[in-house]
Amino acid sequence: MIAYILRRLLFVIPIALGVSIVCFALVYIAPGDPLNTLLPEDASAETIAMVKKAYGFDKPIPVQYFIWLGKVLTGDFGNSIASGRAVTDDLFKALGNTILLAGGAVVVAFSLAFVMGLVAGYHSGGPVDRAVTGIAVIGVSIPNYWLGIVLVIIFAVELNVLPATGMGPRGSDTFNFWEWDHFRHLLMPMLTLSMIPIGIITRTTRAAVAEVLNQDFVETLRAKGLGEREILVHVIKNALPQVLAVMGLQFGYLMGGSILVETIFTWPGTGFLLNKAILTRDLPVLQGTILVLAMIFVATNLVIDLLQTMVDPRLKRS
Amino acid sequence: MANITMSPADAVAVQGAPAVRVRSYWQNVGYRLRYDYLTLFFGAMVMLILLSAVFAPLLAPMDPYESSLINRLKPIGYKDFILGTDELGRDILSRMLYGGRISLTMGIMPVLVATLVGGTLGIVAGFVGGRTNMLIMRVVDVFYAFPSILLAVAISGAMGGGVVNGMLSLTLVFIPPLCRVAETATSQVRNLDFVEAARATGAKTFSIIRVHILGNVLGPILVYSSSMVSVSILLASGLSFLGLGVTPPEPDWGLMLNTLRQAIYINPVVCAIPGVAILITSICFNLVSDGLRSAMDVRL
Amino acid sequence: MRNFKTLASAIAVSAGLAMAALPASAESVLRVAMTAGDIPVTIGQPDQGFEGYRFVGYNLYDTLTLWDLSQGETAADIKPGLATSWDIDPNDHTRWIVKLREGVKWHDGCDFVAEDVAWNFARVSDDKAPQFNAKQFADIRNRTGIIDKVEVIDDHTVAFITKQPDALFPYQLSYWFMISRCKLTELGNDYEKYAVDPSGTGPYKFASMVAQERLELVKNADYWDEKRIPKHDRLVLIPMPEATTRAAALLSGQVDFIEAPSPDTIPRLESSGMTIVTAPYPHNWSYQLNFVDGAFKDVKVRRAANYALNRSEFKALLGGYMIEGYGIVPPSTPYYGKPEYVYEYDPEKATALLKEAGCHPCKITLAISTSGSGQMQPLPMNELVKSQLDAVGFDTTLDVMDWNALLDVGRPGREKNPQIDGINISRALQDPFSALIRHVYTLQHAPKGSNWGHYTNPEVDTVIDEIYAAFDPQVRMEKLTKLHEMMVDDATMLMVAHDVNPRAIAPNVKGFVQAQSWFQDLTPIVVE
């Protein structure tokens, strides 16, 4: 097993290198000079040349890549062109905020979806099943940024019960999950972001539960005279690993996929950072954020994969 | 977004149907579909949506580009404006119909192209194996390491807005998963006895692929790519919403959501129309894909 | 390692470690939602366009000449700031003698002296100086580039030697912020540290910053201008680039003061009791034209385009929140004058002019952006321009790009973009140089300057040279007026609208007077 884990870890290295090349190259396809936002709109040619040199953009691109990669390996993502701040500081702060948001969304989604999926799976084919399946389809089909806008209008503007934007009354640095005045800032973005995982986890749970119920051993258990409650425990036990795996994967997706929701709610996470960096072509921020998010995605997938393999060794990949 | 978690390996549960039964398998699929009324209904809805987009010039009551500022942001049913007007006083219904052309194209084209490209790459990788497989699949792995929205946003952000760039970036997003589906399915079939037997009898590589592999691999690929259409529609509208997709004055549902958002306090109902359109279209594509999946008996 | 700690603490919060709640305070707080996407940099010259100058620059810092923002009746002009007087040496028109204010203290307690001015000049000009900063250099280069050197005469007098005579020089000084030599030296010239511990002489002191989210300033009770000591205790600045988000934040009570509500949100804001304040200010939503390559090299075509626009429709689009643009500067500007040509909507004349010019249909391409500083509502407005131009016989193509890409077209000028006939970058017209000279002066041809379309007119150049040499304010005003009239008559721009910069203010916020300027004074505001 350990050898297998090591092999899988080794396998990640070329992927990581590839990802870093893609991240670095991406921003060089871009039309538009990264220095534009840095300079006043009527900066003269000599000023531009001088600043270009100061930021190292005058070097050949491969050289810039290796300089960048070397620094990244020591945890230094350079400084933002726009704000001058260290990218590492901004990025890891934003990452914490996104983890909170995506983690919250997945937990909410799991709690709702697992119950719904369980009920639907039990009553496969019935009206409850159809209702739940309908909800699940809406969850994966709704443009969540649009839902976010609608929620803001309802709960912030019309009813005035939830804040429209931001993270906590005094910013993310003092955010306190356990204080209602802070926590309520999290509610709408979290719910909005949880729509897709609700849909997906519900479907997975429903399918897994229905499958378990169809298996012979359930009949055997029933024949043995076990109560419905014990059978339920068995069903959950058998369906849970698969559902948890999907939940983990969803977390990975939300980490990279919260960009629209964060933009709507001005949630100071990685998506917000990324959107801003795209608009201002802030290369160091763009490269760093994409790289870190992709690596988190790779890591989440790997961990889930390994956990699943431990539970069921037949899943080993060659 | 939707279905995106379905790992390609899961989507593939090749039935191991021997080549001789290929035709009857497809007949079975047709038979099952014929009696799946729900899928038929939503299939009809999809056709309706597609037709309304194709025939937008015939159906649209007005010029989708013609603005009239006295008539801006009018409610549903105002004068001849069946769905009201937008921020420049243009007819929303006409813009929705024309907008469907772009939104649906951006949803379907990337998936089609990615199916062709990714599917071909995957079949080649799975059939040839060895170094070729190694090379193709490792490159795919790199792109697979990005969450789909992140990759789409990053690529279109890098290349700049526009329909073509948007479609290109979405195509790149869908190639890796489709390639994986095809590769997994192909390598499973490749080692089955009947393919070995065909090889032994000296059948040409191309005809082996055509007859044996394609027959067995097509199902999973079709199911997977059909489930990607709604994802693609949502991603495309998201890109336009961020200002990375369609550029104005072209009508597009995602972009309309973005521009109408400013007027949400004046006319909330009209502003909600593009969102509803995206939702309904996405639901229809999702349900049709579900129907296909169960008809083709491909396990989720 | 610090970063990983931040991450770890964020995880800890989500994992369930409670943190101490902040004590409530009775101080009066003004919370402002800005349109910027991030907090403007705090190290002297801000970024985020003039919004950064407005909220961070002039609050933390002072300039030698300051803008007088105390009234909204007439266009704002400069007044004494850290300098009490500025005079041209009568024998040498490149030498300005500037007297500095005495008794001014930096927020860190050091005294403000002449040496600080010389040190600040090296900061933005001499790449060998330890306090030099490339970004700051780039940001202020256009203003300080004229300065050859700074001489310290005594503790409170400096002399500026300019490279050539420039009667408008005192205006250039109004953009250049003085930062504390004491503080930066103490921090080892480390601007990253200085950004979170800055020191100026302005009416507010730095309190705290949450990067990307909020900047908190507190009032400087010892400010040298007693009239401008803030009437509230704390000023919170929050970046909020989405207009709908700003409106929602104001309506839900998260902020008290928002910048630039979009016109379609204003009726709702008003019905909820918010006050909408507006004032004309030196802004022009227009197109700079290509005078060399395309159709616009013919003045008839330029005039036709100007006659083709029905500006009242733009006003309807913007809910009335604009001034119809018939000049380069808004009509309340002192040097507006009486241009011969007034381009009232006249489609027949426009068509006739196009036919006369032999350009019918007249193909043009306009480069526009989807968003950007000062661009108002770029998409619907540009779509309206296109439809009105096409109605008189133009055949307009809109080349839509993002703000950055548009700047990329804007910088190098028409030479690199001969296919573009007009570019829609709204420029700040704060002072005469920015408003007029840079758009038409031959020496300002892009990429060196901002004359994007390479307008060349010897008569105009002569008038500009006279302005530079006119140290008598009255003579200068006459020349400026003449220049503006010439620019309008020769249709050097496609003139559309002047923004009136609406702001929405919560009912408990009193005392704000909107000046006719890009900059505003928040100090008189009382929060009840």
UniProtKB/TrEMBL annotation, chain A:
The lineage of its organism: Bacteria, Pseudomonadati, Pseudomonadota, Alphaproteobacteria, Rhodospirillales. Keywords: Cell membrane, Membrane, Transmembrane, Transmembrane helix, Transport. Belongs to the binding-protein-dependent transport system permease family. Gene3D superfamilies: MetI-like. GO terms for molecular function: dipeptide transmembrane transporter activity. It comes from the Bacteria. Residues 95-308 form the ABC transmembrane type-1 domain. The keyword Nucleus does not apply. InterPro entries: BPD_transp_1_N, MetI-like, MetI-like_sf. It is found in: Cell membrane. Pfam families: BPD_transp_1, BPD_transp_1_N. The chain crosses the membrane at residues 9-30, 99-122, 134-162, 182-201, 243-265, 285-307. The keyword NAD does not apply. GO terms for cellular component: plasma membrane. It is a multi-pass membrane protein. It comes from Thalassobaculum litoreum DSM 18839. This is Peptide/nickel transport system permease protein.
UniProtKB/TrEMBL annotation, chain B:
SUPFAM superfamilies: MetI-like (SSF161098). Pfam families: BPD_transp_1 (PF00528), OppC_N (PF12911). Residues 100-289 form the ABC transmembrane type-1 domain. It comes from Thalassobaculum litoreum DSM 18839. It is found in: Cell membrane. It is a multi-pass membrane protein. This is Peptide/nickel transport system permease protein. The chain crosses the membrane at residues 37-60, 104-129, 149-175, 221-244, 264-288. InterPro entries: BP-dependent_transpt_permease, MetI-like, MetI-like_sf, OppC_N. Belongs to the binding-protein-dependent transport system permease family. GO terms for cellular component: plasma membrane. GO terms for biological process: transmembrane transport.
From TrEMBL, chain C:
GO terms for molecular function: peptide transmembrane transporter activity. One of its GO terms (cellular component) is outer membrane-bounded periplasmic space. Residues 1-20 form the signal peptide. It comes from the Bacteria. One of its GO terms (biological process) is peptide transport. It holds the Pfam family SBP_bac_5. This is ABC-type transport system, substrate-binding protein.
